[in-house]
Amino acid sequence: MSRQPHTAAGGALSLERLVFFSDAVFAIAITLLVLEIEVPHLPRVQDSEPFLQALADLFPSFFAFVLSFLVIGRFWMTHHGLMDHVKTYDPRLMWPNMMYLMAIAFMPFATALIGRNLGLFGPALFYNLTLLVTALLGRLLVQRIEALDPTSDTLLGEAAGSNAVILGATLSVLLTFVLPAISQMGMITIPLWIRLLKRRNPA
């Protein structure tokens, strides 16, 4: 059976639904991060020491929350920029976009795992590999959008951002084998990678 072409109105509506659904997944994933931080049960005493100790005990969860909030935010910014370049809906966008969103939706679990086991090799490697897989799926989406309009050079910025996230995540994975406790700091090199990639391939 041949695929029926989309009308202009139908294509615009399908693209709008795709973007709205994607934004909803990002919003839910980024909100779920805070639900993984357990509220401490404090003794019924007028003493600040138990409260301060409870906050100190929650530091790994706070760190994981802030880290993943910024990472998912970076992924969303890349996705937002990509969708700005999609002028007409194409069904071939559906599966690459869905796979990317699946990885985003998985992030709260990886965040909870590292938050409760901060500094351990296994959870750190699992988290960093999750970042890398998500970045690679994001690059796949970039390639699919590029294929829709191969003559356009306006995707260079988003492609550089996507490649920079891959490089940052790869660095985090490598750092896991040396310094697992701070391996996620490889992600803070993303702005540097973006500058280097844009300088190498100016628009």
Automatic annotation (TrEMBL):
Catalytic activity: K(+)(in) = K(+)(out)
Keywords: Ion channel, Ion transport, Membrane, Potassium, Potassium channel, Potassium transport, Transmembrane, Transmembrane helix, Transport
Chief location category: membrane
Topology of this chain in the membrane: Multi-pass membrane protein
Location in the cell: Membrane
Membrane-spanning segments: 18-37, 58-77, 97-114, 126-145, 165-194
Highest taxon of the lineage: Bacteria
Family statement drawn from the similarity comment of this UniProt entry: Belongs to the TMEM175 family.
UniProt-recorded name of the protein: TMEM175 family protein
Organism whose genome encodes this protein: Novosphingobium aquiterrae
